[in-house]
Write a structure and sequence with these properties.
Blueprint (H helix, E strand, L loop, with lengths): L3 H22 L3 H7 L4 H9 L18 H14 L1 H21 L2 H12 L5 E4 L15 E4 L3 E11 L7 E7 L4 E7 L5 E5 L12 E11 L3 E2 L5 H38 L1 E2 L2 E2 L4 H30 L4 H27 L9 H12 L6 H15 L4
Parallel strand pairs: 1-4
Antiparallel strand pairs: 2-3, 3-7, 4-5, 5-8, 6-7, 9-10
Length: 382
């Protein structure tokens, strides 16, 4: 457990993040979405505050936030801008935590300090054009040359691949799956931005093409054959925790927008918040959001304690909060009426972002299966 002094420090970081978001992120969320970028100035400001590796220990340039406070921190950032929240999820959860767990001493020294200062950004490349949910079916391949590896393949839907300085690439040699640290400037590596997407427009999503890309022997992360079970397993677990809190962030942002609009909008000479059907929508939205946050807090506490069921509780939280985000976003648009379909109001963007959460880091249907298998074991009474 954290000491009271450490608790106070972490709580202060979350409050600081809320203030920073209100001043520097939320006012620009629409601009980022329309221009399909997060500008380098904001990334620099985030790095100066050590936000990019918020969950990593201070000795690696992070903020040392424990899982509970990291989640609360992610909610504050995500309420302001989903893509900015995704940037932190990718850097801290997917890439940072994975390197911390499985990277060699040299790999950590090479990447983590530069990531913390914003001088290097990473991306986690698993998904391919024909491979999404069936992650074990990847086609990207590698060949061991004795003094290095040759990689060929294509990755797709990779968040921040458009601006990342290096990638964690998952590949197979036909018998086993391994992970590699690949620099952007490696010969044979090219990226292609993916534009006009439903959501995540400012997350610099791109394709990565690998054509006889040669990387040194020291680029393998962990052991040969450990790419799926260890590297991917670690990344997806941390990523799902980040996405779970992203769901809470979207839901709460929708609640905030619903309340403000309902208190100001007038119809039939009354504020629409006085109508019971509108109150019903808001009441349900508040309840669902509180429930999603409670599940995320439970998962965070179990992660903090190293509880053996922390992974499945994270899966439950991700499944539930992503569904809640979508349901609350739908109702938020409904409360706004026609205005909810206009980009002038944040709920239009939040509605699009909410849908993405039911797909990334494992679809809701996959989460259902994982949760069902757990339930069939845990609650069977012979």
């Amino acid at each position: 457990m954290s000491s009271s002094c450490d608790e106070n420090r972490q709580r202060a970081i979350v409050e600081e993040a809320k203030d920073f978001t209100d001043r520097q992120i939320r006012p620009r969320a629409r601009e980022f979405d329309e221009k399909e970028i997060i500008d380098r100035k904001l990334i620099k400001e985030l790095s100066e505050r050590r936000y990019l590796l918020a969950s990593l220990p201070e000795e690696h340039g992070g903020l040392g936030l424990d899982p509970v406070y990291y989640g609360l921190f992610k909610e504050e950032i995500g309420k302001g801008c989903c893509s900015t929240g995704a940037l932190i999820t990718v850097q801290s959860s997917l890439v940072g935590e994975t390197l911390l767990a499985w990277g060699s001493k040299d790999q950590k020294a090479k990447c983590l300090p530069l990531m913390a200062t914003g001088k290097k950004l990473g991306a986690f490349a698993l998904t391919e054009p024909e491979v999404g949910t069936d992650a074990k079916g990847i086609k990207t391949n590698y060949r061991d040359t004795g003094d290095g590896f040759v990689l060929n393949g294509r990755k797709r839907w990779i968040s921040f691949a458009g601006i990342a300085d290096f990638f964690i690439i998952i590949g197979t040699d036909g018998e086993q799956t391994s992970a590699f640290l690949v620099e952007r400037d490696t010969e044979g590596v090219t990226t292609k931005p993916m534009k006009r997407l439903l959501a995540g427009r400012a997350a610099h999503i791109a394709e990565i093409e690998l054509t006889d890309a040669v990387v040194p022997a020291g680029s393998m992360i962990g052991k040969a054959g450990g790419g799926y079970r260890y590297v991917v397993g670690t990344a997806l677990d941390h990523g799902r925790y980040g996405v779970a809190w992203a769901g809470v962030a979207v839901a709460q942002a929708c609640v905030d927008a619903m309340v403000v609009y309902a208190r100001r909008r007038r119809q039939f000479d009354r504020r629409i918040c006085e109508f019971q059907l509108i109150q019903g929508l808001i009441g349900d939205a508040v309840t669902k959001t509180h429930a999603a946050r409670a599940l995320c807090l439970r998962a965070g506490e179990m992660r903090r304690q190293g509880h053996p069921n922390a992974v499945v509780e994270t899966t439950i939280a991700k499944y539930f909060s992503s569904k809640v985000a979508m349901e609350v976003a739908v109702d938020a648009v409904q409360v706004h009426g026609g205005n909810g379909c206009a980009g002038d109001y944040p709920v239009e963007r939040l509605f699009r972002e909410a849908k993405l959460l039911e797909i990334i880091e494992g679809t809701s249907q996959i989460q259902q299966q994982i949760i069902a298998r757990y339930g069939l074991r845990a609650y069977f009474k012979p």
